[in-house]
Specification:
This protein is an alpha+beta fold. The protein has seven helices and four strands. It has a four-stranded antiparallel β-sheet, sandwiched between helices. It is globular. The two termini are about 30 Å apart. It binds flavin mononucleotide. Flavin mononucleotide binds next to β3.
Length: about 220
Amino acid sequence: MEISDALRTNGAVRGFTDEVVPDAAVAELLDDARFAPSGGNRQPWRVAVVKDREVRRRMGELMRPVWQEYCGANAVGRRPFAFGKSIDAPPVDVPNALIDEIETIPVVLAIAADLREIAIMDGNVEHRPPVVGGASIYPFCWSILLAARARGLGGVMTTFLSRAEQAATPLLGLPDDHALVATIFLGHPTHQNTKLKRNPVESFTRVDRFDGEPFSGS
Ligand SMILES: Cc1cc2nc3c(=O)[nH]c(=O)nc-3n(C[C@H](O)[C@H](O)[C@H](O)COP(=O)(O)O)c2cc1C
């Protein structure tokens, strides 16, 4: 598949067939993903391939209230967990296939980042939370999803468990100074969405400054 096609069509997959994904296939796609970039090439990613159904069940238990909080905010028109926004809304219980079926989804990967290996370039900024450190780990996560697509698999990156990181720490044996940055679900898609809704370039691009003239590309 052309890289451009893969980039434009790798929609989130949240429904999977029962077909098993062998460990060898998981190892292969991690073997592709490890070529992702990271600040200073420190490769701060750590991966737990979560196979134990009981561990998965408990991960789901930790994710569910976060999902309900998210749905509660959405239900009253709030941006869930956005900077500077309080949720201040009752949780809402909506089915979630990933959480409901976490025990049987073919592949569940918990992704951690070793914070001692990340240059958090905006760690000293006081008026907002630091975000740049994530750039040393999320390209790796996205590469997993692209590598999965290259093998006819599909999946989705999720972050609900990060909100319950403290509770998940003993469950997953998360080491000190590590952050739980994502849980990635993979499998053979029941449906691969390739028609993605994304905003056009001119809607988010300006010349010279973020308040500059629109960048037309012509
Ligand atoms: C940082 C990040 C966090 C995400 N967290 C979740 C999540 O917790 N649960 C979920 O179902 N999808 C999650 N997603 C998937 C997004 O919902 C998905 O990429 C987006 O809606 C676009 O979907 P599409 O590719 O099918 O168009 C996350 C994606 C990213 C990049």
